[in-house]
Design a protein that fits this description.
With 292 residues, this protein is an alpha/beta fold. Helix content is 48%, strand content 13%. It has 11 helices and 9 strands. A 6-stranded mixed β-sheet has the order 1-2-3-4-6-9, with helices on both faces. Strands 5-7-8 form a 3-stranded mixed β-sheet. Strand 2, helix 1 and strand 3 form a beta-alpha-beta unit. The longest helix has 24 residues. The two termini are 33 Å apart.
Amino acid sequence: GPPLSGCLLRPMIAPPRFKTVVVSVDAGSHVGTLRLNRPSKSNAIDGDMWAEIPKAMQWLDDQAEVRVVVVVGAGKNFCAGIDVSSPESLTSQLGQATAVKCPGRKAEALFRHIRGLQDSFTAFERCRKPVMCAVQGACFGGGVDMAVACDIRYCSADARFCVKEVDLAITADIGTLQRLPTLVGHGVATEMALTARVVGAEEARAIGLVTEVAPNAAALEALAGERARSLAAKSPLAAQGTKQAMLHARDHSVREGLEFVAMMNSARLTSEDLGEAMAAKFAGRAPTFSRL
């Protein structure tokens, strides 16, 4: 089958069906997968995908058996960005298909449209469970918006990243300009956004955009699966708390971040997970944590 086709997962827990994405769950390893499923279009983001990604992420968030989510793309490319295959498609993507005459009302409608698109990808951050992203081939424009909203990124050696919007006469507005600087630094992010140049896999690792590079798509699938299963075996309370604390720290001062994690742990350190982790350590066995 195609690379990264969701083969990480064995039994399925009756997930909802979508037009542009496929959701699956391996209850045994507690790993859920969200697969972008428009391979003939290089998983370009259309109106359906904008609407379906947050619904799929909410469903995965709601499943007690799921402790980690892996985002993958079917076919050769992870995501080529927004679907610009036709002028009509581009117009609808940009929220310009409106008959409203009043400039103020037209601007307000466009504002709400953009905020809705932003919210679609904020779904990756909003998900309580850690979200890993496995990128092969092209990751352009909206694909970068998606990847940087995830918690961890891996890629294959053929991966190519490009903040493409400026070449379409658009200021990127779905999250890259806000999230990328915290990953690669303000200067590098600014250069990538202004030049729209293509960044290869090794440079992506060197600048901190991804943490590991696999030699090919099959190896990437194996790497992401191994990392996801390893994380899913850890305390779900600790993993989810770490995600919350990291996102809070990114957006707040050190002082505020320290108070936040102290408040969180004052409520969570008394959990059964801590006792189980210690008992397993002294017994020389793998810990078993109850679902969250």
